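ok trying again, last paste got cut off:
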Amino acid sequence: MATAIEEGQAYREAMLLAAAEAANAPEEGAEPTTDEEAADRFSLTTVTLAELENMMTPTTPTQEGPALPAVTVELIRNLREQTGAGISDCKRALEDNDGDLNKAVESLRQKGFEQAARRSDRETSQGLVEAYIHTGGRVGALVQLGCETDFVARTEEFRVLAHDIAMQVAAMSPVYLSEEDIEAGDERPAAQVCLLQQPYIKDGSRTLADLVRETAAQTGENVRVVHFSRLALGE
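nice, full thing came through this time. structure:
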């Protein structure tokens, strides 16, 4: 079991990383215009240890000894793996939720959804076309997924999303992209015929719209399904 000193040192390392990330964060409302600028949002700034030390607020000792924070490096790591959020955002979410991992996850996802909504009118001229052919070659799907920069289009998160959506199209045969596209007189439920409203085939507690918003939150860009198509032998 880690000693109090070891836990305190580990926490301090995480705080130094968070301070470095915060120092490199873009100004509120700033938008990337090039791949290089987009890449900057995923990297930590290069600063000296002394500069990082100056960014930190030391823990106030008590009569019983140094006060240990409830937020640990392991919690920050777990939260970042689950949400893809930055170190400083993970630290803040855990602090705001008294170290409760589940509440911090929900808090970050909600924050990401709100940010994604504000970015929804940005142009998505970049992206990729993903193809999925089911085993046996009898069913296939094409999906065009859009984003703002070529940098994000090359990230693993974006590629995984495109692949998962193509699999969803092949497996669930959606007719429309969203509820707004349902034709008059079609009374079938949106969860059945609309791609974005369908439950995700790998996790029924989430919809395809949730997946798109989560990826938008992780990448910091507007992400949207532009077009999809499904082909099957005999149909």
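cool. The longest strand covers residues 139-147. The domain at 126-232 is CATH 3.30.479.20 (Tetrahydropterin Synthase; Chain A).
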